[in-house]
## 1
Amino acid sequence: MLSNDSIHALTDTHCHILHMINKTTLSAFSNSEIQEIRKILHQASLKNVSNIFEIGTTKIDSVLSIELAKLFKNIFPVIGVHPHEATDNYQNDVLFLKNLLDEHHEKIVGIGECGLDKHYPDHNLNAQIALFKSQIELALKYNKALVVHTRDAEDETYAVLEQYKDQLKRVTIHCYSNSLNFAQQITSWGWFLGIGGTVTYPKNNLLRDVVKTVGINALVLETDAPFLPPQIIRGKQNSPEQIFTIAHYVAELLEISFEDVASVTTANAEKLFQASTSTDVA
Ligand SMILES: [Zn+2]
């Protein structure tokens, strides 16, 4: 069970604490790094953000996310390689992830972020597709949640996911930024949309329409910290405590109570990740 001992416990389903503290090399956490992380978690706990999912983007931060989860009970590790990292050598990455899964099967709760991203002109789409499919296969083989990243590649992402829609049960489309039609398809398969700070951006009527159309039962909340700060702190570093801001915003948008947003999205996160570690925020 995710922690919802305290009333209205919130869950950040997509965070990069390692990026927040600029930890990019494979080494033990220093005392000052641990202090920094404690501070982030403490600030989050003051806003009732009790569960945080640390998402991998590279081999290094996948390893470190597992180490983080060993140190802090309310951090849950998700391991994966981001499409920006896709090379023709992708099989090495897949093998690396597979070895981590064999070694830390109990601890790891998901695979990702993985997917397709055509935003930059030098993307290697073939390698991205191969790496994405391999990570989907890992999620299936090890029965883990799948955390999907898709940017400027809706059709290609749909084509891949559609092939697995009957087998994959636990999926979130992180930082949802796709069409209403895609949202309706994805949620009809029982999958979740990850909603974060971008829903608060003045121009983002499309995402607000998506949220209103699919409803709270199809949503999980995320910050993607240190990226994508909500409008009230735009330009500053994002952090997991901002789930509180996002939850309030979604409550107003859907005209439901904050308590309902908190309890439903935390329950959805629990369904998504089947995270079994009970947590206490220090
Ligand atoms: Zn991310």
Note: The beta strands are 10-15, 49-55, 75-79, 110-117, 145-151, 171-173, 192-195, 219-221.
## 2
Amino acid sequence: MVDVLVIGAGVVGGMIARELIGYTSSVVIAEAREDVALGATRANSAIVHAGFDAKEGSLKALLNVRGSKMMKKTAEELGVKYKNNGSLVVGFSDEDRSTLEELKIRGERNGVPGLKLLTRDELVKIEPNIGETVSCALHAPTGAIICPYELCMAAVGCAMDNGAELRLNFKVAKIEKSEKGYIVTAENGETVEAKYVINAAGAYSDEIARLAGDESFSVHPRRGQYMLLDRDSGDLVSHTVFRCPSKMGKGILVSPTVDGNLLLGPTAEDIDDKTDTKTTADSLAKIKASALEQVKGINFGKVITSFSGLRSVGSTGDFIINSPFEGFINVAGIESPGLSAAPAIAEYVRDMLISMGAPLAKRDDYNPTRRPAHWFSELSVEEKNNLIAEKPEYAKIVCRCELVTEGEIRDAIRTNPPARDIDGVKRRTRATMGRCQGGFCTPYIVEILAEELGIDYTRVTKFGGESYINISRTKEV
Ligand SMILES: Cc1cc2nc3c(=O)[nH]c(=O)nc-3n(C[C@H](O)[C@H](O)[C@H](O)COP(=O)(O)OP(=O)(O)OC[C@H]3O[C@@H](n4cnc5c(N)ncnc54)[C@H](O)[C@@H]3O)c2cc1C
């Protein structure tokens, strides 16, 4: 019997687990997949929204604005890259200008500070590459960017460092009421009994609710496709440049990432399949056309990859955070701005548990901090040399595009939550994320994984399961 079971290791489940472990050392995180951060948290726009978009009085508005205020400190504590770059919503017509005025009023009512309407002249001064036909903009100085999967991994890692248990490949298939709480069973037969269950299963949160007997809402996937440009394109703009929102969402954006790339997208396509993350030529062409209207001079020869993510669109139009049964909490329909709101959602859930009578008391020994994942390149030359003298594995650069050392790859396999496959190493260290997309460094990463995990290199997988990539050597080394 544990105190709390969190279902889903996305950024929302991860932040909730990190918050709760500060109050009880008995937390289990159950995740269906082979690693954390593989749902919507892996593929999104990575924006910490200022909070002017969500409807006044909604949970989305409340938790977005609060989360945005909390994010800088949260990122500092967890050693996650965060940049307060500010955002711009650009308009092309008088009609767009009226929309921007409405957004400004809504944002002010939501409590967003510093919103300002800009003329084209004012805009060009701060963003010289803004599109030729852009005529006005709404500036939100509190908008920011962050790495979403890094935030999730750091939150889960921090929870684990403080005593939480992560159960991977635990796909919840049955939820039964027990005398003191719930017995939750995975597809593979493993069980966890918990006094309190938090359903943070993203796109599948409606299915988890149904397993517990709650049929009050549904969640459908809305796909968003992206193009990512190489690092030398990241300084084309400094702000995140949105266009006026529509009923399908915030529209295409052009934004630098915290790692210096340029991100274009997402599209908004309602689909039925909760696993369909393909990209299509049609949608990528739409992104290209829209992005070029917003920002001039984008060099599409610099695109290094395209990808897509699925928003969890809830049937109520707002975040669904409720308790349909004693000891069971839904955190569902967490579409955008779920990343921005995640730290505030975690506090909100903590307070719900306390109001239900959960025995949560602040732990004196709780440590909210964690070492950054990419830290070697940030060291001074002297610090690097000292470290290399002690541990020569930091002298060997494995990923030349992203300058990732062997030492950092070994650390990723040794620290919470540990990497177990090539994609796990990639998300933790950025190795294989550069221009060559792993063409040069993958064989070295396979060797390191095999050695650290004590397995043959043919057993190393790309993303768990049976995703083996080596059959045999062509040449002995
Ligand atoms: C295209 C796109 C753009 C976005 N842009 C932004 C943005 O710029 N800013 C912003 O604030 N938000 C943005 N969002 C929203 C944000 O990404 C999400 O709100 C957030 O990632 C949701 O996190 P989550 O933990 O709820 O869900 P997820 O990350 O999907 O995690 C849910 C987890 O539950 C697991 N799970 C599912 N079923 C089971 C089961 N049966 N048993 C155990 N585990 C299970 C899944 O495997 C998954 O790991 C965007 C989303 C998308 C898709």
Note: Residues 107 and 339 are 18 Å apart (CA to CA).
## 3
Amino acid sequence: MKNIIITGANRGIGLELTKLFAQDCIVYALCRGDFPQDALNDHIKVIKIDITDEAAVAKFAAELDAAQVAIDLLINNAGMAGGDDNLMVKVDVSSATQVFVTNVVAPMSVSLHVTNALKRADKPAMIAISSRMGTHALLNDYNAEWWPYSASKAALGMAVSAFAINEPTVQSISVHPGWVKTRMGGDDAALEPAESARDIKNLYERIDELESGSMYNHDGKVMDW
Ligand SMILES: NC(=O)c1ccc[n+]([C@@H]2O[C@H](COP(=O)([O-])OP(=O)(O)OC[C@H]3O[C@@H](n4cnc5c(N)ncnc54)[C@H](OP(=O)(O)O)[C@@H]3O)[C@@H](O)[C@H]2O)c1
């Protein structure tokens, strides 16, 4: 059975990914708060971690290494929009910094710390949940207003491309999950979290055919970024 790590596993897209992958994999469900009890099963290992806490991430990775666990897939899903997730961020350096730490530095910290565990798998992969808001190709007034989020996802795309070069045995992609009905996406969004999770799992199932370091839409089309 494959071993998967999913960050931000307690709600939104991460929770649906966790439920879906746990049907046939062991999921290390990383969350900083409580995981919903009604979604728990024997395939889900809840690990309480704030991904910006590097010491906690390193400890988790060391435990994987000590037990010689092979991780087949890391999904860097956890992310934030800025402020209290409902506020437009214009000039707020502290909030913008937190967005960059959460959306770029922390996912790469998790990736780097679990690289040894990934390399123990036959065909390891890393998927970073990015956003179309982080593409130059789709830059508009709305994305510009939310510049810390947009710029952080653009930086995440570059970091994933760099990780793909630095770790050529780990198939690594960025994915736009769609506009999804979550706390971040809001009630008017186009997709249910379960639909987005299904699409992301479908992408993973053909990850060998995809170009490592590139960005894909949830529907499988390569994105111009
Ligand atoms: N929804 C959309 O339309 C949409 C579109 C494009 C991209 N995305 C991306 O999709 C991903 C998932 O977002 P979502 O829509 O599911 O949002 P969400 O419902 O707001 O969930 C965000 C998740 O990230 C976790 N998280 C944030 N900071 C964390 C930290 N420091 N440590 C650990 N966990 C942390 C949250 O945990 P807490 O519960 O503890 O806060 C929560 O589980 C994000 O990367 C987001 O940027 C979403």
Note: Residues 216 and 222 are 4 Å apart (CA to CA).
